[in-house]
Structures are given as structure tokens and as C-alpha cells.
Design a protein that fits this description.
By secondary structure, the chain is of the alpha/beta class. It has four helices and seven strands. The strands form two sheets. It has a five-stranded parallel beta sheet, covered by helices on one side. It has a two-stranded antiparallel sheet with strand order 6-7.
């Protein structure tokens, strides 16, 4: 019985660490985001959804590496000194991707507070339901 309590305690601690804020991740309100603004010109946009979701709708010019492949493939597309904007459907995916990149030395990470964005003919649209 004690082993069960220990395992439950470890599971709770792990969950709390996943929710803990990251210093290197800055959230941006969706209303303040304009990807055409010069401020975002040098920022690399990383879409961490699966390839099938990515091809159903994505921001043009984004780099698609799913969260599961991110620990292995990140170095082919982005470097630790790059500013990286993380795009995904859920806040948990964004947070997990940010943790992976922060462990590898990334200090300028950005994410939208809210839903995944897709630019469709110049208009911002959400092709998927929010998973906040």
C-alpha cells in the first residue's frame, strides 16, 4: 500500500513540474500577434503538431517537427540562439516543446496564449477546436 502512495506522490510531482512556468517561454496574446510585423521577421516558427495535422492547415514558412521527434531533429532546423515561436493545438504540446528546447539552451521562446493559428488567405483562422 505504501508503494502505491509513493507512486501517486511521484505522479503528482511530475504533473506539477509539467505545469510549472518556464522562464524562457513568453506568452503572447492572440490579439497582439501580427506575424507580418517586422518584429517577427527573424523569428522561426516551429509547428509541433503531427505531419497529418500540419498539412491540413498551417502558417506558411513554418518548420514542422512533432513533439515526439523534437529531441532528435531540432538541431537540423533551429539553433539555440534563434528566437522560436512555438505553434500547436494544445497548451500542453507548447509547454512540452518549450521544455525540450529550454533544456537544449534556447532562451527566446514564444507561444500564443490560446488556440492554434493558421493564416488562410491573409486572415487568421482556427481550423481546429481549441484545446486549451
Amino acid at each position: 500500500m505504501t508503494l502505491i502512495y509513493i507512486l501517486l506522490g511521484l505522479a503528482c510531482i511530475w504533473e506539477l513540474t509539467q505545469l510549472w512556468p518556464l522562464r524562457s517561454l513568453t506568452y503572447i496574446n492572440i490579439e497582439d500577434l501580427d506575424l507580418t510585423h517586422e518584429r517577427w521577421g527573424k523569428v522561426k516558427i516551429l509547428d509541433v503538431r503531427d505531419a497529418s495535422e500540419y498539412w491540413n492547415g498551417h502558417i506558411p514558412g513554418t518548420i514542422n517537427i512533432s513533439v515526439g521527434r523534437l529531441p532528435v531533429l531540432w538541431s537540423k532546423h533551429i539553433e539555440p540562439h534563434d528566437e522560436v515561436f512555438i505553434s500547436s493545438r494544445s497548451w500542453m504540446q507548447r509547454k512540452k516543446a518549450a521544455r525540450i528546447l529550454a533544456r537544449r539552451g534556447f532562451r527566446q521562446l514564444y507561444a500564443v496564449r490560446g488556440c492554434y493559428l493558421s493564416i488562410n488567405k491573409g486572415k487568421v483562422a482556427s481550423p481546429y477546436p481549441c484545446m486549451q
